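4.2 Preliminary Data

To establish feasibility before requesting continued support, the project team ran the inverse folding procedure on a target of 338 residues. The structure was first converted into the token representation described in Section 3, and no sequence information of any kind was made available to the design step. The complete token record follows.
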């Protein structure tokens, strides 16, 4: 019995020491994490998550969204540092939505579009909005259903996330507070237009790639949930938008075709907004996919270059090249349906 009591007491003591050890290690890890976060400038858990990669300094970030309880996952691309360039203009690229894959979809990168901007000196952030992929949570921007959609409120809900991401990135020491560009694809294009209706400070241009909501209604190509409502919503959003925008759609887009694109643009400009509409030639099997392909540069690249150059305050950064080799002046230029 004495041996049994001794073994029991030993086991109890061991458990106590083990619990104490676990608590001590956990506390140490927490302190280390907090110190690391503070030393890297991360506040409230937001900021870079992991090291930069070799592809355009690719890095995962955690950034605020509209819901403080549900931070957004994002990818950030940056040009290589150059002498004399302290801050660069920002581009926010906004993804579309596929109801079938939205929770399983990987982080959006739109590699070729991102590269186009990075090569011209921009910082690129691609936030993953609520209800998508790693960000998860409820799909806040799907208000109503296909029989009774609310395209305006849905656009605003998505714009809430985009605006939160925009403001956070503008506060970063390497990002200029002015001259930002907001671009979006499909539902991300519609969300970008919804944000434009608020005229956010520091944003000077909006690029809409095949934007809309409710495409492929009930799985049918060229059918849109509440098409008339979508057109009416464009008039309301355009009624308050004063940021210049450029729009791209394709002849063979099975979600938002050229006829609907023309109606949306007419509605937008009729409300008072500015829309430079371009209907591109047929592209591949479905023109809805033209935005993130190297070949797409030949379709939209020159027009975007011209459009951004027309924004005087969005002029590319010019910095002295201090390299010993040249000593010259180097110009650093600054799919879903629902």
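Position-by-position output of the design step:
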């Amino acid at each position: 019995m004495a041996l049994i009591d001794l073994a029991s007491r030993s086991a109890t003591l061991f458990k106590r020491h083990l619990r104490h050890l676990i608590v001590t290690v956990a506390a140490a890890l927490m302190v280390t994490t907090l110190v690391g976060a503070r030393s890297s400038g991360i506040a409230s858990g937001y900021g870079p998550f992991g090291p930069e990669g070799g592809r355009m300094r690719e890095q995962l970030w955690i950034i605020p969204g509209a819901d403080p309880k549900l931070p957004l996952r994002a990818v950030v691309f940056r040009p290589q540092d150059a002498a004399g360039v302290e801050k660069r203009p920002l581009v926010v690229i906004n993804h579309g939505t596929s109801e079938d894959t939205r929770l399983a979809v990987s982080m959006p990168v739109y590699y070729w579009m991102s590269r186009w901007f990075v090569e011209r000196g921009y910082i690129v952030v691609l936030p993953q909005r609520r209800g998508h992929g790693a960000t998860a949570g409820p799909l806040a921007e799907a208000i109503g259903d296909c029989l009774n959609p609310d395209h305006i409120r849905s656009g605003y809900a998505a714009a809430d996330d985009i605006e939160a991401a925009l403001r956070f990135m503008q506060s970063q020491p390497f990002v200029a507070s002015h001259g930002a560009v907001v671009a979006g694809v499909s539902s991300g294009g519609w969300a970008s237009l919804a944000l434009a209706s608020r005229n956010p400070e520091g944003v000077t241009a909006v690029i809409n790639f095949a934007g809309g909501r409710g495409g492929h209604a009930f799985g049918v190509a060229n059918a849109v949930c509440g098409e008339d409502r979508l057109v009416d919503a464009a008039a309301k959003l355009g009624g308050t938008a004063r940021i210049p925008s450029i729009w791209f759609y394709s002849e063979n887009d099975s979600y938002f075709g050229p006829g609907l694109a023309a109606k949306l643009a007419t509605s937008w400009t009729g409300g008072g907004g500015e829309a430079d509409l371009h209907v591109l030639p047929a592209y591949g099997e479905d023109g809805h996919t033209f935005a993130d392909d190297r070949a797409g540069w030949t379709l939209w690249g020159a027009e975007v270059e011209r459009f951004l150059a027309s924004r005087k305050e969005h002029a590319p950064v010019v910095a002295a090249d201090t390299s010993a080799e040249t000593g010259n002046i180097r110009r650093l230029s600054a799919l879903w349906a629902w």
